[in-house]
């Protein structure tokens, strides 16, 4: 029998019996079709189209292609005519699928409902992972979340059923781990409404974080636009050993490139070191690690978001084949083998920049505080902390999350914990563990890892994002209390984990977090330092070793997936007009055809301004489906250059200082347009489009900065705002919070043509500066229509 096929009767049995790990393929043609996922048995991988498109483009460009180019150009809407120039042209692409987490899915689905379309055009899923707050532990926290968020979960469940979107229930796990286990595969192009969607690059896919409006385009069957990415090559040589881990690769890269060094680029890992990443055994008691899919490559790709990269990717290799087979997708691995030449870079391909890292020389790293690119070797961080006045005592160690919760990660942490337990020790710091998925939770429970981590003093949290995104009801400190935490997470912005601006958060590998939690101090270096056992004897922790994958099959745990019905047209989706959690959207106003004159400045931001500063998470997550309510957090974390304070700006009409959202609402009530002035890399971090929706909803029209993060700039365009950058960054200093601004020449708004800004000072003097933009013709139409969604509706009306 064809190895890629199942009989029809077995196929029916697999579906009706709820079997979750079988991959079903069609028997309807000579060359077996292979399903993208066993949850969508009639949606097939189309490597033939990828091959055809790549060959068309390779012939046109007449040069070897990087892996990134192969997958991106292989998904072009029109490969024969598409203009292609790295870093300059906009590509029109056809992604294979869409994934949305519950906090961003609310607004994405509300926008899709507004489009009037009956069903999504590509396979799409919703994942409930962001709304579960860490308090008491997994089961209790999950029950509480289901009760508190029942209205939102019901909306997402019924909207998914009506519009053909798969629904992963609360408790299923974090979106990125679910994607890795079920949906990512070599050569896929997937977009997700979360900035850490690149996690799927660990399985050889181009997986890109976007805002909800971009997701709506793809779900509507419209070609998706992306500026043609540059490609940064990271060449890996040597082998990891001892306490060094795959996490240290990306921590090192972040230190080299900084938080904006990857903007507009795909990070492509290559070289002989790639095949050496996964835990496979010990030689002379030294653990030589090879980059595994789940334990290494995905971690590295996940944190590419922290350097502003469009995404990150690894070439197809035997590690991916092994992981696909272990997760019930051997048919995909076999098909990928047939098309392998299209899933690896061409020999002689050229990168825009090359970074080389010798894994044999790489030391364990820890990055922070307050930014993920402040890199330190673990051996140095204690001394640096003392010099800088950072607290060296560690209050809490936290492992897991989407970045580091693979089976191998949990095993290596358990290996460290087991050594300490053997000497009668437990963690000096509080210690928490977040499994990435129900499958990981169930498997580490079965195999004993979870109990070892409990025995050392750990608390197992729900399969959800939890403290990583600020969903943490922290009780051990008061707000404003200076303290240190260490995590295996990906992001450590000010106040991100616990809303306390005095929490010094450091990110590192889960095994280093475990070791530091046992020691209780940043001054401990597990490579050289000794601990004292309960018997008073000193001992040294050995570098941990663990299996890359379980010896038995993964335990899938509880079934938490809801299939969309074949016909969801009769499904009712309820949004109460009195709801405080959900609100149907009203179209934004169209551009009136006039220049934007005499705009007030809502705030001139000083320094770093992430999407967490623009639209905070944590307790505000509950309003992600209600635009007016969530707008009450607009820019409350941004620092006002006028007074050095957060959430305190001058109302130019009353001269009184007050909260940013209140001031914006006052301007809107008075019919006054306003602008925001920002610094470098404005909007870095999360993909949350609320950071663009909120200023638009409250009357903002222009955001002027030295530079933008990619996703945020696109989100602003999608909502009809003007993201503009100073032609001369020094002009940032010419604008004062009390000035008025006019953007003139909008009647001639065109791609590549700078716009003129007139600065009017209170003393009557004026200055003129030039502002650049990255709008193309279709994006200018978004601005003119009031938003991308408005423009979509205009085109639908014309076609009908």
TrEMBL record:
EC number(s) reported in the record: 4.2.1.3
- Note whether Repeat occurs among the keywords: no
Cited SUPFAM superfamilies: Aconitase iron-sulfur domain, LeuD/IlvD-like
Which parts of the sequence are annotated with region: Disordered?
548-575
Q: Does the keyword Iron apply?
A: yes
Q: Which InterPro entries match?
A: Acnase/IPM_dHydase_lsu_aba_1/3, Acoase/IPM_deHydtase_lsu_aba, Aconitase/3IPM_dehydase_swvl, Aconitase/IPM_isomerase, Aconitase_4Fe-4S_BS, Aconitase_4Fe-4S_dom, Aconitase_dom2, Aconitase_mito-like
Q: Which CDD domains match?
A: AcnA_Mitochon_Swivel, AcnA_Mitochondrial
- One GO CC term, this protein: mitochondrion
Question: For this protein, what reaction is catalysed?
Answer: citrate = D-threo-isocitrate
Per the UniProt record, one Pfam family is Aconitase_C
GO: which molecular function terms?
Answer: 4 iron, 4 sulfur cluster binding; aconitate hydratase activity; metal ion binding
Q: What cofactors are annotated for this protein?
A: [4Fe-4S] cluster
- What is the protein's name according to its record? Aconitate hydratase, mitochondrial
Q: Provide the species name.
A: Pavo cristatus
What taxonomic classification does the UniProt entry list for its organism?
Eukaryota, Metazoa, Chordata, Craniata, Vertebrata
């Amino acid at each position: 029998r064809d190895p890629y096929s199942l009989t029809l009767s077995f196929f029916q049995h697999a579906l009706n019996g709820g079997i979750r790990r079988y991959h079903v393929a069609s028997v309807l043609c000579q060359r077996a079709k292979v399903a993208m996922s066993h949850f969508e048995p009639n949606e097939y991988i189309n490597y033939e189209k990828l091959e055809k498109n790549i060959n068309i483009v390779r012939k046109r460009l007449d040069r070897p292609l990087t892996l990134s180019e192969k997958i991106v150009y292989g998904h072009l809407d029109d490969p024969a005519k598409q203009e292609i120039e790295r870093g300059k042209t906009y590509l029109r692409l056809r992604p294979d699928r869409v994934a949305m987490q519950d906090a961003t899915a609310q607004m994405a689905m509300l926008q899709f409902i507004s489009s009037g379309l009956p069903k999504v055009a590509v396979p799409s899923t919703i994942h409930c992972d962001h709304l579960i707050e860490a308090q008491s532990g997994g089961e209790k926290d999950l029950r509480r979340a289901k009760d508190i968020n029942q209205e939102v979960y019901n909306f997402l469940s019924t909207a998914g059923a009506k519009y053909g979107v798969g629904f992963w229930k609360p408790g299923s796990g974090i979106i990125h781990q679910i994607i890795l286990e079920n949906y990512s595969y070599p050569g896929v192009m997937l977009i997700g409404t979360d900035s850490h969607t690149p996690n799927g690059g660990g399985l050889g896919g181009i997986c890109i974080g976007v805002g909800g409006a971009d997701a709506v385009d793809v779900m509507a069957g419209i070609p998706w636009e992306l500026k043609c990415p540059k490609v940064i090559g990271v060449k890996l040589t040597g082998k990891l050993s001892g306490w060094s881990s795959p996490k240290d690769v990306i921590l090192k890269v972040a230190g080299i490139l900084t938080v904006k060094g990857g903007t507009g680029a795909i990070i492509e890992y290559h070289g002989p070191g790639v095949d050496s990443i996964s835990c496979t055994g010990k030689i002379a008691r030294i653990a030589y690690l090879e980059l595994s899919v789940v334990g290494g490559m995905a971690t590295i790709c996940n944190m590419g978001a922290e350097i502003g990269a469009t995404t990150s990717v690894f070439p197809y290799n035997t590690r991916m084949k092994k992981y696909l087979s272990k997760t019930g997708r051997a048919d995909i691995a076999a098909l990928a083998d047939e098309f392998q030449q299209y899933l690896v870079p061409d020999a002689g391909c050229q990168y825009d920049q090359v970074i080389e890292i010798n894994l044999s020389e790489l030391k364990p790293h820890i990055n922070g505080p307050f930014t993920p690119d402040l890199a330190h070797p673990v051996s140095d961080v204690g001394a640096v902390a003392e010099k800088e006045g950072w607290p060296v005592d560690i209050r809490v160690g936290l492992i897991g999350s989407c970045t580091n919760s693979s089976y191998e990660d949990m095993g290596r942490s358990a290996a460290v914990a087991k050594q300490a337990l053997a000497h009668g020790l437990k963690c000096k710091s509080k210690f928490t563990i977040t499994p990435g998925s129900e499958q990981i939770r169930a498997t580490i429970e079965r195999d004993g890892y979870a109990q070892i981590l409990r025995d050392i003093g750990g608390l197992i949290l729900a399969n959800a994002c939890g403290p990583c995104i600020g969903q943490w009801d922290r009780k051990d400190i008061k707000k404003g209390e200076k303290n240190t935490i260490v995590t295996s997470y990906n992001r450590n912005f000010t106040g991100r984990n616990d809303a306390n601006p005095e929490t010094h958060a450091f990110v590192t590998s889960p095994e280093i977090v475990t070791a530091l939690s046992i020691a209780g101090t940043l001054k401990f270096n597990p490579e050289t330092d000794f601990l004292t056992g309960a018997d008073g004897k000193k001992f040294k922790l050995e570098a941990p070793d663990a299996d890359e994958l379980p010896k038995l099959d993964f335990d899938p745990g509880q079934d938490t997936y809801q299939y969309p019905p074949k016909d969801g047209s009769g499904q009712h989706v309820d949004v109460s007009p009195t709801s405080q959690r959900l609100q149907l959207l009203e179209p934004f106003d169209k551009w009136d055809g006039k220049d934007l004159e005499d705009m007030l400045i809502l705030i001139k931001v000083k320094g770093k301004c992430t999407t967490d500063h623009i639209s905070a998470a944590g307790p505000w997550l509950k309003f992600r489906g209600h635009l007016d309510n969530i707008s009450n957090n607009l820019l409350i974390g941004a620092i006002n250059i006028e007074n050095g304070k957060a959430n305190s700006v001058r109302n130019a009409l009353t001269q009184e200082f007050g909260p940013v959202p209140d001031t914006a609402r006052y301007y809107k009530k008075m019919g006054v347009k306003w602008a925001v002035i920002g610094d470098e890399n404005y909007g870095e971090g999360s993909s949350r489009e609320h950071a663009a929706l909120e200023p638009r909803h409250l009357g903002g029209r222009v955001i002027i900065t030295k530079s933008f993060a990619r996703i945020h700039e696109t989100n602003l365009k999608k909502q009809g705002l003007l993201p503009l950058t100073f032609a001369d960054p020094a002009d940032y200093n010419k604008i004062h919070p009390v000035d008025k601004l006019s953007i003139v020449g909008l009647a001639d708004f065109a791609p590549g043509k700078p716009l003129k800004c007139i600065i009017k000072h209170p003393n009557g003097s004026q200055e003129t500066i030039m502002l650049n933009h990255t709008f193309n013709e279709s994006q200018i139409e978004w601005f003119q229509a009031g938003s991308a969604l408005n423009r979509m509706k205009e085109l639908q009306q014309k076609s009908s």
